[in-house]
């Protein structure tokens, strides 16, 4: 196994080009080091980008905020621009692991691994984030919901590196929510995780983006529910619950696994969604 | 600078460990935990789970608390590493001894190093240590013996002792 330890983006991209298809990118190591230690992964080569400092910057721009792929959860929750435009990203980052993991787990790593249980990814879906990918062939940006393609798979080509996450400015009159259910408050992996951004014009919902994790093979956007909410008025809380139940049954098929059961996940997801919708429609 | 290594071939590393410069050679993906325990015989840092869940192997890298079981040594070349053997932990160690913060002892080095990180953070923020802050700081350090109350009491006593100095 070859290990390329790089300090600049240019060197990272040329190492990725030279490495061929069976390459893994190493950043904070919270996934890859565990996979290698257990023997589950043995890539032909590794490109270690942890100390490419230019990928760590977080910048506020005219359009919003651009977060370098190597920004750690700790850096996200200490950053003012992220708090301003992406408050629920800060909330989510605070629920990841504990201090030691948050010091190493990166936003680019969350996307790169594309685990269905990732806590930051549902927030990026709800906020309409774009993923920036660079290679020696060029730079492109892709909507995060198109980037994540399946169980731990995504649209990154083997010579590409996730270099940044681009978030839009916070729109006025947008209500946001983040909810994670795990076995304990700290150091737990989600059984169900939901993030939502719901915009209203004062009386009606005009746009909704609601995303969930740990309830399918990948992070998902609940498109059907989002469409149903636009302009919708509800007679009472029971009507909200009914809509959420119908939408979850139509579009989500959670599974039993080591962390939870399909039945529990479905039950909790419906209630979290109903709570989010209740809070959103009560906006004056 | 791009360096390409074979993971079976040792590379030259320089670490500042507890203030002393250490030069050694180790394969690039060898865990910092193993470098500390086996290559430079600092066995105070313990391996608990080996997969980033328990916090026993916590060390400070350039002042940040990290899990040495998840850090490949090629990522800490030139870094400042502080372990349970560092000499600025006496007041914390005394507090853990005095207030029963340790039983079997496997989690204790991680608890003490994490307490150092927490008290340093409080000092940077010009805030006082609190029970909630200590809980949050030590949330990633698991203990299967004590039930945590005595550990948290030890942290708060250490904070008080350091302030009184």
Oligomer designation? heterodimer
Strand content of chain A: 25-35%
Proportion of strand residues of chain B = 15-25%
Structural class of chain A: alpha+beta
**Biggest sheet of chain A: strands, sense, closure?**
5 strands, antiparallel
Low-confidence sequence ranges of chain A = none
Mean pLDDT reading of chain B: 95
Name the biggest interface: A-B, 35 and 35 residues
CATH architecture grouping of the largest domain in chain A: 2-Layer Sandwich
Give the second-level CATH assignment, the architecture of the largest domain in chain B. Orthogonal Bundle
Write down the overall mean pLDDT of chain A.
Answer: 94
Strand order of the largest sheet of chain B: 3-2-6-4-5
Question: From N to C, what is the helix and strand string of chain A?
Answer: EHEHEEEHHHHHHEEHEEEEEEEHHH
Description:
The complex is a heterodimer of chains A (284) and B (165). Chain A is of the alpha+beta class and 284 residues long. Chain A has 2 domains: 2-168, Uridine Diphospho-n-acetylenolpyruvylglucosamine Reductase, domain 3, CATH 3.30.465.10; 174-280, Enolase-like, domain 1. In chain A, 36% of the residues lie in helices and 26% in strands. Chain A has helices at residues 9-19, 32-37, 73-78, 80-85, 87-95, 99-102, 107-113, 120-126, 144-147, 223-229, 237-251, 262-281; strands at 2-6, 23-26, 45-48, 58-60, 64-68, 130-135, 138-143, 148-150, 153-154, 161-168, 174-181, 192-200, 205-213, 220-221. In chain A, strands 4-5-10-6-7 form a 5-stranded antiparallel β-sheet. In chain A, a hairpin with a 2-residue loop joins strand 8 (148-150) and strand 9 (153-154). In chain A, helix 11 (237-251) crosses helix 12. The radius of gyration of chain A is 19 Å and the shape is globular. In chain A, 51% of the residues are buried. Chain B is an alpha+beta fold and 165 residues long. Chain B has 2 domains: 10-82, Beta-grasp domain (Ubiquitin-like (UB roll)), CATH 3.10.20; 90-164, [2Fe-2S]-binding domain (DNA polymerase, domain 1), CATH 1.10.150.120. Chain B has 5 helices and 6 strands, in the order E-E-E-H-E-E-E-H-H-H-H. Chain B has helices spanning 32-39, 90-98, 108-125, 131-137, 149-164, and strands spanning 2-6, 11-17, 20-26, 58-61, 64-67, 80-82. In chain B, strand 4 (58-61) and strand 5 form a beta hairpin. The chains are: A alpha+beta (284), B alpha+beta (165).
């Amino acid at each position: 196994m070859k290990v390329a330890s790089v300090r600049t983006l240019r060197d990272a991209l040329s190492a990725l080009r030279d490495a061929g298809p069976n390459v893994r990118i190493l950043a904070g190591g919270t996934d890859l080091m565990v996979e290698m230690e257990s023997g589950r992964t043995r890539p032909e080569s590794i490109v270690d980008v942890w100390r490419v400092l230019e990928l760590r910057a977080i910048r506020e721009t005219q359009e919003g905020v651009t977060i370098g792929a190597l920004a750690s959860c700790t850096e996200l929750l200490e950053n003012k621009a992220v708090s301003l435009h992406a408050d629920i990203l800060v909330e989510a980052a605070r629920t990841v692991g504990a201090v030691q993991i948050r010091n190493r787990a990166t936003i680019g790593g969350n996307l790169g691994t594309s685990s269905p249980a990732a806590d930051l990814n549902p927030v990026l879906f709800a906020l309409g984030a774009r993923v920036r990918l660079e290679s020696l062939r060029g730079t492109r940006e892709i909507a995060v919901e198109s980037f994540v393609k399946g169980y731990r798979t995504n649209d990154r080509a083997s010579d590409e590196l996730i270099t940044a996450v681009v978030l839009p400015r916070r729109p006025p009159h947008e209500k946001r929510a983040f909810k994670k259910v795990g076995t304990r408050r700290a150091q737990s992996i989600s059984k169900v995780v939901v993030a939502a951004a719901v915009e209203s014009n004062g009386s009606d919902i005009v746009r909704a983006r609601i995303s969930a994790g740990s309830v399918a093979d990948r992070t998902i956007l609940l498109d059907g529910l989002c469409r149903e909410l636009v302009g919708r008025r509800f007679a009472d809380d029971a009507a909200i619950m009914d809509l959420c139940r119908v939408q979850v049954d139509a579009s989500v098929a959670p599974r039993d696994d080591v962390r939870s059961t399909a039945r529990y996940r479905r039950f909790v997801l419906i209630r979290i969604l109903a709570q989010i919708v209740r809070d959103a429609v009560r906006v004056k | 600078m791009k360096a390409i290594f074979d993971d079976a071939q040792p590379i030259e590393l320089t670490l500042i460990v507890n203030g002393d410069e250490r030069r050694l050679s180790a394969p690039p993906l060898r865990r910092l935990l193993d470098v500390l325990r086996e290559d430079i015989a600092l066995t105070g840092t313990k391996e608990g789970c080996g997969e980033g869940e328990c916090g026993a192997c916590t060390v400070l890298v350039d002042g940040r608390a990290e899990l040495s079981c998840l850090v490949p040594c090629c990522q800490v070349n030139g870094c400042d590493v502080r372990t349970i053997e560092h000499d600025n932990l006496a007041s914390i160690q005394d507090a853990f001894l005095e207030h029963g913060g340790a039983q079997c002892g496997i989690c204790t080095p991680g608890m003490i190093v994490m307490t150092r990180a927490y008290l340093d953070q409080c000092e940077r923020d010009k805030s006082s240590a609190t029970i909630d802050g200590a809980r949050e700081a030590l949330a990633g350090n698991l203990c299967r013996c004590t039930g945590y109350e005595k550990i948290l009491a030890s942290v708060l006593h250490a904070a008080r002792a350091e302030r009184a100095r």
